[in-house]
Amino acid sequence: MPKISLKGQQMPESPIRKLVPYAETAKKKGNKVYHLNIGQPDIKTPEVALNAVKNADIKVLEYSHSAGFESYRTKLSAYYKNHGLPIDVADIIITTGGSEALLFAMGSTMDSGDEIIIPEPFYANYNGFSTASGVKVVPVISTIDEGFALPPITAFEKLITPKTKAILICNPGNPTGYLYSKEEILALAEIVKKHDLFLIADEVYREFIYDESEKHFSVMNVPGIEQNAIMIDSVSKRYSMCGARIGCIVSKNKEVMAAAMKFAQARLSPPTYEQIASEAAIDTPQSYFDDVVAEYKERRDTLIAELQKIDGVKVATPKGAFYCIAKLPVKNADDFAQWLLETYDNNKETVMVAPAAGFYSTPGVGLDEVRIAYVLKKEDLIRSVAILKDALDVYNKQ
What is the pLDDT of the chain when averaged over all its residues? Predict the structure, then answer.
């Protein structure tokens, strides 16, 4: 029988989605499952976006430009400038989700065997994108005890080799919710300038900042690294449009964008209806975001307060996005997460969490941690944590 590729064998499973079969079995048994495992917001998609699709008068569903609709890029550039980001139309290529933007970024800046430094824990699919691109992830560990702050600059410099091509950050972060300070971004800017590296910033959660004293600082706002900086963005979280699969890669570096354009041409074009929705979504009123941020802030505060009531649980308070990492009093969170779905129920209810080991590339790290997405309403979060507390008691008495 012919064999699959080594790359195919090495592609990691999603820690977010690999427990889905167990959740499906739990539901077939009549159990309600509270999904804390995936960043799928329950916030309604803006009506202006949905209506644009409903009202689109299209007779032929044609290819779009490989870089995306010019009208959308023009509007997106204006949106960024209104938010203080100096991004022109020529700096933007529309992609099929932030995922494709990351693949374009890696494909345009790295060759097989090159290295990318990523503070961990990090979005699990960075492992997958790196494997698909033949790139080696070099992790620099941030810890729950430090609130997942940026590791010391010396930790980065020790890891830089002739094969290092880029540093990748998610700001604010998935899975930690950590928001990098302006000082931390400037420190990273100094490293990439000094060592002639790219700084790739996944900024898809930019709007989700919960404390008034905190502000998001973009890599596109750092003077002097215009040739180093690459920004990844998406409509998935901003407008609760995960299914649209529309994102973009942004850079002032013309060589990077020319290379990314060749990848864009190879896949022909991003989807048409979704671009129509995304372009219309830019007209979403500020009141929508004000309400969403207020809702998520309340959810964050509720979740953290409830988790802190459980003996043996440690959690770092996230400043942004809608995730947190919780350290549990268990040896193996993978086993615990599966047991929650396969064996346990509390009055025919259980919870689904994402084991955090899959958000690290260092073996053996994060085995007792889970990522929790606070994308459920407040009452469901309170109930979920109550179930989690009871489950931990039952599990540890086995």
Answer: 95
